[in-house]
Amino acid sequence: LHSFPTRRSSDLEIGVEVSEVRIYDLSGRLVKMIKNDGLIDLGNLSEGYYIISITDTGGKTRMVPVEKAY
Q: Choosing a second label site near 7 at 20 to 30 A (CA), which of 27, 51, 64, 66?
């Protein structure tokens, strides 16, 4: 897996209709949940690696590794 590096809160836009986004740290702890939004705001997260679980309105879920850097 390759992570997607990001620095700004508006870096991750999703090209599908989103039902839910869950952001997990590498220990598996849920750190943020977003409903019905096509923009993932990482502005308040600490620097580090995260797994983003994106569920679209059709019920399909995909996992995206992300590196939050400053």
A: 27
Give buried/exposed letters for 26-65 (b at 16+ CB in 10 A, else e).
Answer: eeeeeebebeeeeebbbeebeeeebbbebbeeeeeeeebe
Question: What is the DSSP code string of 40-66?
Answer: E--TTSPSEEEEEEEEETTS-EEEEEE
How many Å is the maximal CA-CA distance in the chain? 34
Nearest alpha carbon to residue 32 among 13, 11, 46: 46
CA distance 11 to 26: 20
Structure confidence by residue, pLDDT tens digits, 9-57:
444 566 678 899 999 999 999 999 988 766 777 878 888 999 999 998 8
